[in-house]
Amino acid sequence: MSDKxxxxxxxxxxxxxxxxxxxxxxxxxxxxxxxxxxLKMTSETSAIGEQYFRLADEKAGNNLLxxxxxxxxxxxxxxxxxxxxxxxxxxxxxxxxxxIRKLAESENCIIIxxxxxxxxxxxxxxVVRIFVYADTVTRVRRVMDVDKVDEExxxxxxxxxxxxxxxxxxxxxxxxxxxMENYDLPxxxxxxxxxxxxxxxKDYLKLRGMID
Length: 212
Hints:
Elements: E1 7-12, H1 18-29, E2 32-34, H2 37-46, H3 50-56, H4 64-70, H5 89-106, E3 109-112, H6 116-119, E4 127-133, H7 136-147, H8 151-173, E5 185-188, H9 194-207
Parallel strand pairs: 1-3, 1-4, 2-3, 4-5
């Protein structure tokens, strides 16, 4: 493997297979995969209860309409360490962003969701930003298979979680979640399986000179 430092961020439509692909890819590359572990790590470094981060995880804050209208977005500054704003959605996001940046600086890794593509925008030479999407039929099938639910419940989950992720991304970045300009490698996973997605990403990493 190449000695080049790299970080992969993966945003994904619910049911597209992005999460499973990320986990398997991390195994193949021999690097860490960070998903919910980020919540635990952020709780430990901030001394704020993990439940606060879980409640806010990949969900927009309370002022969505205000933010949308004013196009206001929180700067990626240091979080407030005390006071009434300690557990505000914006401050929790800043704590989480700090952890993501430290991980990205210290090791090769894969970071799932949590606006990683935005948080790491200052290190794009070392970052590969991936967005995995798929058509509705494929996603329904994968959700039914992985979550063990019927078609109606699969569709409900897809709509709900994609809406939350869209609003979360807009709230904290001011960007459209599905604007492909914000990604290096958009992957349509409708007609390829997990192994093929992994091969595609590894081929791209080779093109970028990140792995041999």
